[in-house]
Amino acid sequence: MAVAERDARPGEWTHADARDLTFLGLVTFGDALGELADRGVGVKILTGDHPGTAAQVCRDLGVDPGQVLTADDADRLTDAELGAVARRTTVFARCGPGHKARIVAALRAGGYTVGFLGDGVKDLLSLHAADVGICPRGAVDAVRESADVVLAEKDLAAVDRAITAGRHSGGNIGTYLRITLSSNLGNVFAMLATALLLPFLPMLPAYRARAR
Hints:
Elements: E1 2-5, E2 22-26, H1 29-38, E3 45-46, H2 51-60, E4 69-70, H3 71-75, H4 79-88, E5 91-93, H5 97-109, E6 115-117, H6 124-129, E7 132-136, H7 141-146, E8 149-151, H8 156-197
Parallel strand pairs: 3-5, 4-5, 6-7, 7-8
Antiparallel strand pairs: 1-2
Helix pairs in contact: 1-8, 4-5
């Protein structure tokens, strides 16, 4: 996708304003995949396509497909063996709905937090098996109802932004809890100690009787 810009002007914009633009560059899925990798997020591709097709698409996106694992290969592995192989495999080809769900479950059993992105009815099992089910807004109704997150735009960069926002929120909550606990812990210990040592309660709630 080409990205360009021009100076803003007051008033409403029309298609006629899409001229005299300054070209900024191209945005591809490869950029989004690279950003996810920078966040420490591993990307696995589970598809029903031919292994050669899946591997070539990965190369076009700048992703090294490595050794492609097919559904037939997965069927010959136990759950524990599949989990070990799935950790070092990027592309899984010829996968049916059951194979995808089994791979997701194997990764979760290995201690990974797994998010699954899908838009078809065949992805329902995997959406339920994952920690977080994700789908685009244009997915079928059943998938949108089952997903934990519905992307407002069909863009992998939205997943990266969601992960970043979630990590920031989690960090802010942790910081707030540490500050609150550290500032109030002394008060709690002081009240407990005085309640045990003194023959009366050091603080009582104020009560004001209202005459009728």
